[in-house]
Amino acid sequence: MAAVWILSLTLGLVLVAGYAARGQSSTDQVLVAQVDGAITPVVADYLTDGLEEAERGRYQAFVVELNTPGGLDTSMRAIVQRFIGARLPVIVYVSPQGARAASAGAIITSAAHIAAMAPATAIGASTPVDLEGGDLDRKIINDAAAYAESIARLRGRNVEFAREMVREGRSVPADEALELGAIDLVSGSLPEVLESVHGREVKVAPNDRPVTLQTRDAATEPFEMQLFRRIQQLFADPNLAFLFLSLGTLAIIYELSAPGVGAGGILGAILIVLALFSLSVLPVNVAGLLLLLVAAALFAAELFAPGVGIAAAGGAIALLLSGIFLFRDTPALRVSLGLIIPVTLVVAAGTVLAGRLVVRTQRQRSTITGEEQYVGRVVTVNRSSGQRGQALVDGAWWNVRTDGTELEVGDRVQVIGYEGLELLVGPVDRDG
After folding, report:
1. What's residue 279's pLDDT?
2. Which domains does the chain have, with CATH numbers?
3. 423: part of which helix (H) or strand (E)?
4. With 80 as the cut, is the pLDDT of residue 258 above it?
């Protein structure tokens, strides 16, 4: 009997614990995503997934805590389109203090059902720019202005401000944005936002269905970006892409100047693969890629015809221009000149040094002019692969070959002749 009571009590405790663990249902919660950085295709996919999760889970709202300098027009439009078609309320909260919703971020904020900002934040500056940072032609600006105006009109916000932030690049602080009717409220924290919007009615898809927000005391559940997407977003940085491409090229140049070591080639390949990963999610300009290829070709030419560094200088100019033109569409996704200039100088100087290394190696090899210079020399095998290996002779790497004996690292062998750039050695003297 006692066992039955103990079993019943245990079962009851388990049920109570399970109820406590569940806490509030998803209908008493809001799903919260965080965006801190440029608007890229990775961010667009992340927010799309978050909104779909919120719709499936029947949350009260989908909240985006936003801090961005802007980003890609295509990614911004994908996010806006998804927000407009949302089947539950979307809240964009520009935070923390000191954050901004600039350029594409301003239009994304305007597309939300509820637009909120923390104190000491700013919104606006949505004028499209060209590759040099200047304004684009009127046709593109007119299109962007009309797009911003249509979103503001749809959400019942200040259409004139939407027009000015595109045509004139206007940006305003949170308090002024509230006075202008560009946003709905200014609050110091997300719980304050949820408290303030409780009871408000918004219209959601489909067919402008009215929904009343029930967010007072609603729990917030974070929507985390998946690991692979976090890695993608980390590498979706034009500065990293340019750095990887430049240093990867330099590493391969050094491998060409001293073949056989392998480390430079491996490092260069890894860096270039990482750069290609970055390029896959960034708006690449074909002209920038062509200039990069020209730079690599000129740097390689410096190795095969080393001299006063003319080829390296040409490669440096091409690399500099490549960094400027490699990415397009927005200043938020552009390589910083503060990175382009020093990286270009380092790569050019490294290439010149690699060329000098080639000259030195050629001169060292040219001092050995006949078979008599080799015969009788005893060298140590540093690398081996069967009957072939490598040895360091007079500061230069030479391929060595036996007539049938297996070579091992550390063997001391005697040069008996040469064929081309291979030294013929033997017999192997393992007794030293």
Report:
1. 82
2. 25-230 (3.90.226.10), 237-366 (no CATH), 371-429 (2.40.50.140)
3. strand 422-429
4. no
